[in-house]
Amino acid sequence: MSGSLARLVFPALRWRSHSFDHEQAKIDAALAAGVGGFIIFGGTRETVTALTGELRRQAGRPLLLGADLERGGAQQVQGLTELPPPAALGYLADLDATRSCGVITGSEARSIGINWAFAPVCDLDLEPKNPIVQTRAFGADPMRVGEHAAVWIRGLQEHGVLGCAKHYPGHGRTTQDSHETLPLVTTPGAELQQVDVTPFEYAIRAGVGSVMSAFVAFPAWDASGRAASFSSAILGYLRDPLNFAGLVVTDALIMAGASATQPVPAATVTAVAAGCDALLYVEDVRNVIAALDRAIGSDIPTARADEALARYEAAVATWDAGADQGLPDVAAHGAFADGLADRASHVLRGDVSRIRTPVTVSIVDDDVGGPYAVGPREVFTQTLRDAGVPVGQRATGNAQRLILVYAEPRSWKGRADLGQRSLAQLRRLAPGAQLVVLFGHPRLARQIPGGAPIVCCWHGQPLMQRAAARRVMSWLQ
Question: For residue 136, what is the DSSP state?
Fold first, then answer.
């Protein structure tokens, strides 16, 4: 008879008010219940290093400690290196650079005690109305995406961090966000297997240690209409014929796609029974573990429970072992990332020969209003000012207007295109602009009115804002 399935449960810890102290009661209860590890959101190098060390000390056993690191360690942890989004790497078509991004992510994560990265995204950028993939994907071509994913995984895992190919069998065809609802993809199963699954095959051949399943339903593959995470048919395809032997994991169980048809404790039972070996972002830890343990021998066959536990134990033994490689050279990593950002920024529309000063900067922020605060928006302007470029507050007199459009794929945003508020701002601002900088997917350029040149800078992260400022400075008169 199996023991408790608590090891399959992974709660989230969030940095707030410059500390993780408010999470201590959750940590105490979760470790006492026997969870397999945690997911870490936010923090600094110092606070996360202290947290991961204390979690292991308090647990007295190995743990898997994961984080979303699609754009490098600084996506979560201040003081680590920001890397361009996957779409920018796909645009560069430089597999050596993509591998280096995996190396940087792995070495930096390992140095602060994180041994599981929820990346790379293996979804395909197939659907223009997709609200959640977009620049998170390496591109639309299955083989090219697979090649980038494979080299990134090798770079990451060779530096001591478990990779996670996501979101199997592919989130690229959805027109809805699984944070908000359960998306439905009606594409025939054979086409999904031949196209969308291809990057996951590359990831598996590269030795990826875990695969994240999607809260997306594919009724032409599984007529029950269950999301992939709850489908033994779809998850079973990973094992046979794809021969994947690692951890199959859910996406975050706080997402609406997870609880669309049943409450989370029951959903976790269905997920494990269908073939999942790890349950991410569990909030109701006590009730989920109780539901899992009650189901052993009934809804979850004992052999399936034993298999999931064995896979967890194998993963934690592999990825929690070994010393880290010492403190990474974050300054060198940052210089490398700046070089990639400069190469990835490019003119999408028009011709820019010169920009006259003084300039004024107007921001059209399509990302405000969601559950999470947007990142800093002043980095572009501050970079110009630090270089001595005169930047005014508003376009008056002979000041030349630059427009910054922030339009990232964000959880719960629910749309791919620019919103009505942003379009209204652009109709007012764009006609007199010298230049528009698009921090988003290149295809959004078609929504920007007027004839001003447009530069694509992919994402609003500070890394790309600095690259945009350097590009502008190269055109200054």
Answer: G
Nearest one of 14, 133, 28, 16 to 67, comparing CA atoms: 14
Using a cut of 0.90, tell me whether the model's pTM lies above it: yes
What local confidence, expressed as pLDDT, does residue 3 receive? 83
CATH of span 6-319? 3.20.20.300
Longest dimension (CA), the chain: 79
> What CATH number belongs to 345-474?
3.40.50
CA–CA distance, 335 with 368 (Å, rounded to integer): 30
Please give the pLDDT value at position 322: 65
Beta bridge partners of residue 221, listed in sequence order: none
Rounded to whole angstroms, the Cα distance separating 330 from 45 reads 11
CA distance readout (Å), 21 to 14, 17, 53, 108, 206: 10, 9, 14, 23, 38
Q: Is 233 exposed, middle or buried (0-12, 13-18, 19+ CB in 10 A)?
A: middle
Residue with tokens 């800078």: 457
Q: Identify the residue whose tokens are 């796609």.
A: 257
pLDDT in tens, 108-135: 999 999 999 999 999 999 999 999 999 9
CA distances from 328 to 75, 100, 242, 375, 417 (A): 17, 13, 35, 25, 39
CA 414 to chain centre: 16
A 10 A CB-CB count for 267 gives 24
pLDDT tens digit sequence for 342-359 = 999 999 999 998 998 899
The yes-or-no answer to whether 6-319 and 345-474 have a common fold is no
DSSP annotation string for 349-383? ES----B-SSEEEEEEETTTTSSS----S-HHHHH
Q: Which residues are catalytic?
A: 179, 251
User: Domains of the chain: which residue ranges?
Assistant: 6-319, 345-474
d(CA 455, CA 474): 13
Q: Which two tokens stand for residue 366?
A: 């399509």
Residue with the larger pLDDT of the pair 285 and 354 = 285
Measured CA to CA, the distance from residue 159 to residue 109 in angstroms comes to 9
Question: If 0-12 CB within 10 Å is exposed, 13-18 middle and 19+ buried, where does residue 341 land?
Answer: buried
Strand partners, 365: 406
Which parts of 138-263 fold into alpha helices (H)?
Answer: 142-157, 189-191, 198-205, 232-239
